[in-house]
Design goal:
6-stranded mixed sheet, alpha+beta, single chain, 6 strands
Length: about 240
């Protein structure tokens, strides 16, 4: 059966391919054709950036200058108060019973600087290891007394400072035996010899012991129970 003239086939899947393959006229160039997306087409340009530039951060000096702008310096003068000076730390720990605590601590640790022996009338003390013959000589008053000090009428604190300075000076002068007159306490409350008991503890502590080798109650001719011999260490030891 013959085809009818002028009619397209009912099913023609390639008809649109001819339309796509047809030459496309470029703007501004007559008769020039290229395929869409061909190799000759220039690449698209990226859009220009519209983000604002980041601002520079201020330095520490600039921030400080801005913070103190307009501040006026106050000159020192009448009515201007400066910063309060802090109190200096105490160099020495103090406690009302510090000496007793130190003596107890030394006794417990075995570092007590003196061996003590006393009765109601007599007091004695000596550094550990000292020849007992020297202690007996001191007790009998066989060492020449090269200086003395009288503590009558002094308070406990006054006597302590006076004895400390006296022993230090006597030892520096090269003296070996001195006499401390503390009294019998007849005129004190309850007739207790306060300075005598205090001396027994003072002379056995490290503060006084650095100057002292031994001490013993004096002979009657030198004051008896109201005085004490003190044998000093040699200077520089």
């Amino acid at each position: 059966m013959a085809k009818k003239q002028g009619k397209e086939p009912f099913h023609n899947p390639f008809a649109r391919l001819r339309e796509r393959a047809a030459p496309v006229e470029k703007p501004g160039g007559a008769g020039t054709s290229s395929r869409r997306g061909g190799a000759g087409a220039p690449p698209p340009q990226p859009p220009a950036s519209t983000a604002p530039a980041r601002a520079r951060e201020a330095s520490d000096d600039e921030l400080w200058s801005a913070a103190v702008a307009g501040v006026e310096r106050i000159e020192q003068g009448h009515g201007a108060a400066g910063p309060r000076q802090p109190s200096p730390p105490s160099d020495v720990f103090w406690h009302p019973d510090l000496e007793a605590l130190q003596a107890l601590e030394a006794l417990v640790s075995g570092e007590a600087p003196f061996d003590l022996s006393d009765t109601d009338e007599y007091i004695e003390g000596w550094v550990p290891g000292l020849d007992s013959a020297i202690v007996r000589r001191l007790r009998r008053g066989e060492f020449a007394v090269q200086g003395h000090i009288d503590l009558h009428g002094m308070t406990r604190d006054q006597a302590k400072a006076t004895v400390d300075a006296f022993l230090k000076q006597a030892r520096s002068a090269g003296k070996r035996c001195v006499l401390l007159v503390h009294g019998r306490g007849i005129h004190s409350k309850d007739q207790v010899p306060i300075l005598k008991e205090a001396l027994k503890h003072w002379l056995a502590t490290a503060r006084f012991g650095r100057h002292v080798l031994a001490f013993a109650t004096a002979q009657p001719t030198d004051g008896g129970a109201g005085a004490v011999y003190v044998l000093l260490r040699r200077p520089g030891r």
